[in-house]
């Protein structure tokens, strides 16, 4: 279990002090909000997620956030503390992969716009273009494996509920 002492950085601690939320960080609350694994009740939801957002940064701290899509089955949980996803070539800039090569710390954000559920997953990424990890997604040129360090479920407040429809009418 993560604790206040080893979780929050100087800036986070200062923000909590300034805006009055530090007292809300009792051990029971932290145990619900800061996890070192993905709880079993989230496994099926993550593996069914059609997309997620991936945050990376280079060695200088310059950030990038990208959309990763592909439909259900895009993410595979290897166990409660690791997951994998395919990397398909997009615009050939390799911004996410380049950042991972410099700085393996990544953040993944899963959002279900049907019910507002959100899950933040932070960890260390590695890139595989062969071996057992790559065998999970043989159609992909590369696979990213994330060793999970922190998982934070978020409340559904402020997430818009989107309802998707399929337009079957052909354009004129």
Tell me the distance between the termini: 58 Å
Secondary structure: number of strands: 7
Strand content: 25-35%
| SS content category | alpha+beta
Radius of gyration: 18 Å
Number of helices: 6
Helical percentage: 10-25%
Inertia-based shape: globular
Average of the residue pLDDT scores: 86
Give me the side-by-side strand order of the main sheet: 2-1-5-6-7-4-3
- Describe the biggest sheet? 7 strands, antiparallel
Low confidence ranges: none
Order of helices and strands: HHHHEEEEHEEHE
Which assembly state applies to the chains in this document?
Answer: single chain
Q: Which descriptors apply to this entry?
A:
single chain; 172 residues; alpha+beta; seven-stranded antiparallel beta sheet; 6 helices; 24% helix; globular
Structure, described:
There is one protein chain. With 172 residues, the chain is of the alpha+beta class. It is 24% helix and 32% strand. The chain is built from six helices and seven strands. Strands 2-1-5-6-7-4-3 form a seven-stranded antiparallel β-sheet. It starts with a helix and ends in an 18-residue tail after the last strand.
